[in-house]
Design goal:
Length: 607
């Protein structure tokens, strides 16, 4: 993986500062190119052809590229380009992308199978062409004020050049609603990000932006529905196997995350059918309700991997380090164990395969089960049961039944698409109004529910928002902190629309999720692993609130509210109710802590 940056003027010193800010993404090499029109910078994590021939920015005729990612079918594309008369000077996929653009223009991205964020500078046409992969595995941010155009893999590099960026109030509302920032928005005005499957062409002379979408997932799903059902079911396992094999290609050591859950276990099992002596990695915690090491060890023994385990502690030092690393508020607390896992894994390998996106593709979330269940429960019954459910005592255990029942009842919106969003929310509109007061903006003004209200519609909505800007962003942040490349086989573009197109009974059957994936895994994994309850990769936030002076300080200290966005008295009430056991406000208070600490960090850095 790598870090890229650039802007539409010449300044070697500034582009050097930007690439220095991205050094963690690429510690192996750095490069820059400047002319009168642009400055481009690159930090390299060497994965394929680790020689100096892979140095970037890379040039072919009038084109130059800075690139972050991996295109797994680059060898097939290379042969096709060679047949057309192109000659190669390296064994990198970077050169394949560059020459593909030369031959096919912006349509080249439709030929790529992989993850990417890149910029190609055309010195003849005076354009910058930016592209982000189909599902948003790799990030790409940009700033444009009508004159200056700046792009980078992370916002921190842009902020170096524009230090006085203003906070976007709509983004603050989005963060407290969903704990991440979706769509194309960032926490700052005039800063955006490319959406998944989006290309951007910047005309340097006219200073104009044109954006386009090259991959329409809903349309691809409908196209797959026209295929024979039995053929789709048979193809799913074959495509998944091929997706895993493609993601093993590297000139550096490759391993696999192995939590002991179905998704990562199946990916590892497929790998061990291809490779012997494969290394897998997991971390453990002392709290048994959060610890999955016994399951990961059982899987590792079953599929015969070299399993590496470390028991680690999430302390205040780690919390401060991770949140200080954030470019913008990010409230998924599983970022912390993911960072620890990445740090541990990087000691052994440079590339790691993960089981991320299995829940989105094969329908594994509790909210999908809740959607199915809600169809059979009249809303009037839910309203009647709310007072009884609200009497259930809060629990500090991981995703307790009481928490799930309260979430189901409290956020039972009449519209299924909005209901799904509210079930995923931390602060719904009802909760966010007293928190933000005059800064409150209703969710209908900044988030568009899925246009369809079936299960596939819920999945498509998560592919648009939750997957790229929570799950994948978390993995990118955590892994890039430690210069580790993470690959996601479940996001092969051939697999995703195929599985989403299947009838519901192949996803959820009798409220049991991931029916098809479990069927695929049945010949590879122990039954108890296949059928075990989903646990996720979460952390004991509620216990931290009681024990951590750091977290309490940034929640209860009035001096940390000078940003003017949150109502201090209301936050104190949330905190008191939580400490006294009246309400489970752990997730809400975690977002408040993250926001206050993030704000304090950027203010300190500006000083």
């Amino acid at each position: 993986m790598c870090g890229i940056a650039g802007f539409n003027w010449k300044n070697p010193e500034q582009i050097g500062r930007m690439t220095d800010a991205l050094c963690h993404r690429g510690p192996d090499d750095e490069g820059m190119y400047c002319d009168d029109n642009v400055s481009l910078g690159h930090r390299r994590l060497s994965i394929i052809d680790i020689s100096t021939r892979g140095h970037q920015p890379m040039q072919f005729e009038h084109l130059r590229i800075v690139y972050n990612g991996e295109v797994y079918n680059y060898q097939e594309l290379r042969k096709e380009l060679q047949s057309a008369g192109y000659q190669f000077h390296s064994d990198t996929d970077t050169e394949v992308i560059l020459l593909s653009y030369h031959r096919w223009g912006s349509d080249c991205v439709n030929r790529f199978n992989g993850m990417w964020a890149f910029c190609i500078y055309d010195t003849q046409q005076k354009t910058l062409f930016l592209s982000r992969d189909r599902f948003g595995v790799k990030p790409l941010y940009y700033y444009f004020d009508g004159d200056k155009f700046i792009f980078a893999s992370e916002l921190k590099a842009i902020r170096l050049l524009i230090p006085d960026l203003r906070i976007n109030i709509t983004a603050v509302n989005y963060f407290f609603y969903q704990k991440y920032l979706g769509s194309d928005m960032t926490i700052y005005d005039k800063c955006s990000k490319l959406r998944p499957s989006e290309n951007l062409l910047f005309d340097i002379e006219k200073k104009q932006i044109h954006k386009s979408t090259y991959f329409d997932l809903p349309a691809q799903v409908e196209q797959c529905r026209g295929q024979n059902l039995s053929e789709r079911l048979d193809a799913a396992e074959n495509i998944l196997t091929d997706a895993v094999i493609k993601r093993l290609v590297a000139d550096v050591p490759v391993g696999g995350f192995l939590s002991g859950g179905l998704d990562s276990s199946l990916i590892s099992a497929i790998i061990t059918r291809q490779r012997q002596n494969f290394q897998t990695f997991s971390i453990g915690f002392q709290d048994e309700s959060y610890d999955e090491v016994p399951f990961s060890k059982k899987v590792a023994e079953h599929i015969n991997t070299r399993h590496n385990v470390e028991y680690l502690t999430i302390d205040e030092q780690l919390i401060e380090r991770v949140i200080s690393y954030m470019d913008e508020p990010f409230g998924d607390a599983s970022l912390l164990p993911t960072a620890l896992l990445s740090q541990m894994t990087r000691k052994y390998v440079t590339v790691c395969l993960s089981g991320d996106a299995g829940d989105e593709v094969f329908a594994g979330y509790d909210s999908y089960k809740a959607y199915k269940l809600a169809r059979f429960i009249p809303s009037g019954i839910v309203r009647l049961c709310r007072p009884l459910i609200d009497m259930l005592p809060p629990s500090e255990k991981k995703l307790s039944l009481a928490f799930k029942m309260k979430k189901f009842a409290e956020d039972y919106h009449p519209d299924p698409a909005r209901r799904h969003l509210d079930w995923m929310a931390t602060f719904t509109d009802r909760d966010r109004l007293p928190l933000l007061a005059d800064k409150f903006i209703g969710a209908d003004d900044f988030i568009r529910p899925a246009g369809r209200t079936d299960l596939t519609g819920m999945q498509l909505g998560d592919f648009e928002r939750f997957l790229p800007e929570d799950i994948l962003k978390k993995v990118d942040m955590a892994s890039m902190m430690y210069s580790l490349e993470v690959r996601v086989p479940f996001l092969d573009y051939r697999l995703v629309p195929l599985v989403l197109s299947l009838p519901d009974k192949y996803k959820i059957r009798y409220l049991k999720t991931k029916w098809l994936l479990k069927k695929i895994a049945s010949g590879m994994l122990p039954t108890e692993i296949i059928n075990r309850k989903k646990r996720g990769f979460t952390v004991p936030v509620s216990a931290w609130l009681r024990k951590s002076p750091l977290i309490r300080q940034f929640i209860t200290g009035r001096e940390f509210y000078n940003h003017g966005f949150l109502q201090y008295d209301h936050v104190c009430q949330l905190f008191t109710d939580h400490i006294n056991g009246k309400r489970d406000n752990a997730r809400k208070l975690w977002l408040i802590f993250v926001f206050n600490y993030w704000w304090h960090t950027i203010r300190r850095n500006r000083a």
